[in-house]
Design goal:
Oligomer: single chain
Helix content: over 70%
Largest sheet: 2 strands, antiparallel
Radius of gyration: 22 Å
Number of helices: 21
Number of domains: 1
Order of helices and strands: HHHEEHHHHHHHHHHHHHHHHHH
Shape: globular
């Protein structure tokens, strides 16, 4: 019997190189830690160098296509989503250089887990193989559970356990859904599933709907889609503020890409049941998320529920299924990235490892009363992020909302466009509520250090970068949307 020979050219190892770099960085940190305990500045530097090198490797992929035994699928969508994942991670990492020694940043394992998490989400968006999607999902999720638990707060372990429990349940649902579709089509690759199902003219519709229900529930947990959103505020509250902001961006873009690949052809089924389910999920998520955000007393929980609403807003792009909608999804999430991470970073600057402003909340609205009189620069920056999240022109998220609402109108989803506009108007209230506290109320304390307890140069630099992008986003919309459209069209979406 002749030995099996592998053709390295046919393996197309470039498709897996960005993930190998990220995994290599994580293993390097663990190996170095075995021999010498180093300061967090070293690990931050290694982590950022690893992520920048991975970004470089993405741009070096000359041709889209399959690789590594045909399980990798690096198309335009994979490139865009990997850039969002790594870009958000590069923006997040300097936040570890805090003014206080928070417990999690003392451990090299924190940075290794972070890189393992990134690699998991990179695999998740760069394949249409359900087995590899599952492995990427669990790799990223398990590392994220550990990152939450390492934060030095009483609620952190509780939050990590809640997230782990819900994540394990979602993993089971994903496995059941995958099993059903494998039974129908005999394949675990989404592209081949599409060919078989469409070739049979959706003849197994009851089983298809059952499998779709499992997949909507599984991805709904990861995307905080109603009614699978209940873990979100508690987990965000127990996590550190920047990690909560990061969770609202990176795991969700990975989930959106999987949902885009999976539901793109199912939503086009003749009976429209799948499309109706997606319509209900998107509308309920953006509406209920907004209503719950209205009644919150803590800024962090308000931002958590608002991220649920934003997820529902972006979910409409998968429902519409047009190229303009898909471009709008990535454009919206890129603009949301800078805005939401900046807002959570503002909360992080006023966080102290031992001093708490309030027994129940780290960041109640009253903490920001009269902030403009004590720290006007911080008040203005926070107001910019709130106005952007509210969709007030000319700030960043406004352009994303405008693009998606325009896509809904152009695809004849007029009622959906109206609901999106109404929800955007509702969101203005609770975002401006914080602005009112900061600018129109008297200070609750005269000690201005509560707004700058944790401020360091790297944190301020991240905030400046985020604020500049949010303000000057109008100059980036055209080239950014053109870049995204080129890659989305090349992927066949």
């Amino acid at each position: 019997m002749e030995p099996v020979k592998f053709d390295l050219v046919a393996l197309n190892l470039n498709t897996i190189m960005p993930m190998l770099i990220t995994l290599g960085g994580a293993l390097f940190i663990l190996i170095i830690d075995l021999f010498k305990k180093l300061d967090k500045q070293f690990y931050v530097t290694v982590s950022m160098a690893t992520m920048l090198l991975a970004i470089y490797a993405i741009f070096q992929i000359n041709s889209a296509g399959r690789g590594f035994f045909d399980v990798m699928l690096v198309d335009g969508v994979a490139v865009i989503s990997q850039l969002i994942i790594l870009g958000a991670s590069v923006l997040f990492m300097p936040l570890a250089l805090t003014g206080f020694r928070f417990r999690e940043f003392k451990f090299a394992e924190y940075f290794a887990f972070f890189l393992f998490m990134i690699a998991g989400f990179q695999f998740m968006v760069s394949t249409d193989n359900l087995i590899l999607i599952f492995l990427g999902l669990e790799t990223g999720s398990l590392a994220l559970y550990a990152l939450i638990a390492m934060h030095n707060r009483q609620k952190s372990l509780e939050s990590a356990l809640k997230y782990f429990t819900m994540g394990a349940f979602a993993a089971g649902l994903f496995a059941f859904g995958s099993m059903i579709f494998y039974g129908i089509t005999g394949s675990v690759e989404i592209g081949q599933m599409k060919t078989v199902i469409e070739g049979n003219n959706f003849s197994n519709m009851p089983l298809i709907l059952l499998g779709t229900a499992f997949m909507i529930a599984a991805l709904g947990f990861k995307l905080s889609i109603v009614p699978f959103h209940t873990w979100t505020p508690d987990v965000y509250e127990g996590a550190s503020a920047p990690l909560a902001g990061y969770m609202s961006i990176v795991p969700k873009i990975a989930g959106f890409v999987v949902a885009l690949r999976f539901f793109d052809f199912l939503a086009m089924a003749d009976d429209g049941v799948v499309q109706t389910l997606l319509w209900i999920a998107a509308v309920a998520t953006m509406t209920i998320g907004n209503i719950l955000a209205l009644v919150q007393d803590g800024v962090k929980r308000m931002l958590a529920y608002s991220s649920v609403s934003h997820a529902g807003f972006v979910m409409t792009a998968i429902l519409m299924g047009t190229t303009q909608a898909h471009v709008g999804m990535f454009l919206y999430w890129t603009l949301f990235l800078f805005t939401n991470l900046g807002a959570f970073a503002m909360l992080w600057i006023s966080r102290h490892p031992s001093k708490q402003f309030d027994i129940r909340y780290d960041h109640p609205f009253t903490k920001f009363s009269g902030m403009v009189k004590i720290n006007p620069v911080a008040a203005v920056m926070m107001a910019i992020f709130m106005l952007s999240l509210a969709g007030i022109p000319p700030f960043a998220v406004y352009w994303g909302k405008l693009y998606l609402i325009g896509a809904a109108i152009n695809s004849d989803h007029l009622y959906l466009a109206l609901i999106m506009a109404i929800n955007s108007a509702i969101a203005v209230y609770y975002y401006l509520k914080l602005v009112v506290f900061m600018f129109l109320k008297d200070p609750s304390q005269n000690d201005g250090t509560i707004y700058n307890m944790n401020g360091t140069f790297p944190l301020r630099l991240v905030l400046i970068v985020a604020a500049v992008f949010v303000i000057a986003s109008i100059a980036t919309i055209e080239p950014l949307s053109a870049f995204i459209q080129t890659h989305v069209v090349a992927s066949g979406f």
